[in-house]
Structures are given as structure tokens and as C-alpha cells.
Amino acid sequence: xxxxxxxxxxxxxxxxxxxxxxxxxxxxxxxxxxxxxxxxxxxxxxxxxxxxxxxxxxxxxxxxxxxxxxxxxxxxxxxxxxxxxxxxxxxxxxxxxxxxxxxxxxxxxxxxxxxxxxxxxxxxxxxxxxxxxxxxxxxxxxxxxxx
Length: 147
Known about the structure:
The protein is an alpha+beta fold and about 150 residues long.
């Protein structure tokens, strides 16, 4: 299952009239959008929401992260806490869901997600085919590639 993590502390200096921060409003919008979308084949939602107090992306609030085991994870920022942003995030999640690696081709990105990427994080567990190839080609120490 895909997990969408939304920072509820985003917009720390921008309290709204009802006392909620913009991040809380964004989490509410994402939750409503998830509820409105279809469920997976097993009757469970294809996406679950997790609220967190901080994604440490304060300069790029409202922030969210997207992850699923064995796939690349993404961090997004600078969303407005509205239904259009929530829909764009979940539209990207739909492409992410059908991708084996989590990589969604640029031409499939919803317009509302473009310009909101903060980071792409490699999966913690590599697919088995890649893992066996890499273990035969490298030593036991980790390598970081910049490029």
C-alpha cells in the first residue's frame, strides 16, 4: 500500500481563523480526496494517509511525502492546502502505484505536481535482480554516487 505522509505543522506562522495550520488543512484535503477515490481490488484503499508533525521542509510548506516498500520515495513541497493540490498528489500516486520502481514518466506527471518535488529517495530494499547483480560487483561497504 502507498503511504502519503502530510506535515500538519506546515505553515507554522500562518494560523487560520479556525486555529488550524495550512498543513492540517492540506492533510484534511488529502484525506477527503483519498476517501472519494476508488478502493483497490482487495477492498482496501490504494493509498493511506499518515499525518506527521514535521517533515523538516519548513521553507517549502505545505509538504508531503510518498512511499511504498521497495520503491523510490518522494518528498514534495510548496503546495497550497486546497483540493487541486490534493488531487494532483493523488494523481501522481496513481502512476506511482502501477510503476515497479516508483518512477513515474515525466509525461504522466499531473500539471499540479510539477515544480513541487523536493527529493527522490532510493528504496531501502533493492529488487532481488538488482541486489544479486550489485552484490557480485561490489564489496560490502556502501557507496554513494553523485551524478
